[in-house]
Every structure is written in structure tokens, then in C-alpha cells.
Write a structure and sequence with these properties.
Layout lengths: L1 E2 L4 H4 L8 H19 L3 E3 L3 E2 L6 E3 L6 E11 L2 E3 L21 E2 L5 E4 L8 E10 L5 E2 L1 H20 L9 H23 L15
Helix pairs in contact: 2-3, 3-4
Length: 205
């Protein structure tokens, strides 16, 4: 796990006098924005055993992370639909919904549309970002995106007026670098870090 202090050596040179708590805050914000927009931190969460009569379950995330989006789901290895909460046709609190699958309206829990096989292991793939109380990000993302997240933090910090580190011109340069890194990482994550472009499945009328 890489902590925010791991960014200090490269950042404090260009941000003289910036207090550590403010630096941590802006690194967290930059990491959240980077992960939310690229959806590069994607994991299969700890499987959940389906219980009789239980329709709601927690999204159990690691490292104080927050769910950006529920990407996929499966029961005992067989895919099930991830439903849009807005498109569920009836209130699931009043009974089983017409649609089979799962949906989340808060990104901390999910509900099943119908009772699934009791005892089955339900796996959820989710894209994540650091939560409010996160102290850093996984090492692999630090090694790959240290510079991008630093640029995002510098852009906001240097745009603060009246500080010893204020530099509006460089703030714009770092903001541009941050956006460019997000765009590149989004494409890489979408392609699964391969040279393949995912294709949508054909649906025939």
C-alpha cells in the first residue's frame, strides 16, 4: 500500500511551505478523480454466500475504498445481469422485482431482483476509488500513475491564491497533464491493458 507521504519527495520541491494535511487532502482528491474517471482500479470483491430470504447484501470493499460502479456479477461462475436501479419496474422493498439480477442505488449495498439459489456464491466485480479516510492507494497504481496523480494535486494547489506555492501558469500546465493522463489511462483500462478493443455483443430482434 502506497501512502500519501510517498508522493512528498517529488512534490514538496515545487510546493514550498505546503502543509502535509493539505497535501494529503489534494492527493486524495486527485486519486479519487483519477480512479473515478478511468475505472482502472477494478477488482472482484470477496464472494457473498446467498442466504434464504435475504435480498440485500453489502459491497465489501478493501482498503477503505468506495465503489465507483458495479461492473459485473456472477453466481458460482455463471454471469448474472447488473441492473440499473432507475430501470427496475417495481419497488424491490415490496417483493421480488420482475427482473433477475442485482442492482445498487448507493454503491455500498446491492439487492437481488429475485431470490437466487440458496448457498450459491455471488461474486461482484467493481471499479473502486479511495474513500474519504483512505491513507493511500495500492502499490501497483502508485507505480503506474504516481506522476498523473501528482499533477492533479499540483494543479489544484498551485491555483490557490496567495500561497507561497501559488503559480497559476504551472497550475494550468499540470491540469492539462492530468487530463491527458486520465484520457490515456481510460483507454488502457478499457482495453484491459492489451491491444484489443472490447466489442459489444450483438442483440438480434
Amino acid at each position: 500500500m502506497a501512502v500519501w507521504a510517498d508522493w512528498y519527495p517529488g512534490m514538496l520541491v515545487t510546493l514550498p511551505g505546503c502543509p502535509d494535511p493539505l497535501l494529503n487532502q489534494e492527493l486524495l482528491f486527485a486519486a479519487q478523480l483519477f480512479m473515478r474517471r478511468t475505472r482502472c482500479w477494478m477488482v472482484w470483491l470477496e464472494p457473498t454466500r446467498i442466504l434464504a430470504g435475504s435480498m440485500e447484501y453489502d459491497l465489501d470493499t478493501p482498503d477503505r475504498a468506495l465503489v465507483v460502479r458495479v461492473e459485473k456479477a456472477a453466481i458460482d461462475g455463471s454471469p448474472i445481469d447488473v441492473l440499473s436501479w432507475r430501470q427496475i419496474d417495481s419497488d424491490p422493498d415490496l417483493g421480488s422485482a420482475p427482473q433477475a439480477g442485482l442492482a445498487s442505488n448507493n454503491r455500498t449495498t446491492f439487492r437481488l431482483g429475485r431470490q437466487c439459489p440458496v448457498g450459491g456464491m455471488l461474486s461482484v466485480q467493481a471499479s473502486l476509488m479511495p474513500g474519504r479516510y483512505s491513507t493511500g492507494i495500492p502499490d501497483e497504481f502508485f507505480y503506474q500513475h504516481e506522476g498523473a496523480i501528482a499533477a492533479g494535486a499540483r494543479a489544484r494547489l498551485m491555483a490557490m491564491p496567495g500561497m507561497t506555492w501559488t503559480n497559476f501558469e504551472l497550475a494550468g500546465v499540470h491540469a492539462g497533464a492530468f487530463d491527458a493522463a486520465i484520457n490515456a489511462a481510460t483507454v488502457d483500462a478499457y482495453r484491459g491493458y492489451t491491444n484489443n478493443t472490447p466489442r459489444r455483443r450483438a442483440h438480434w430482434c
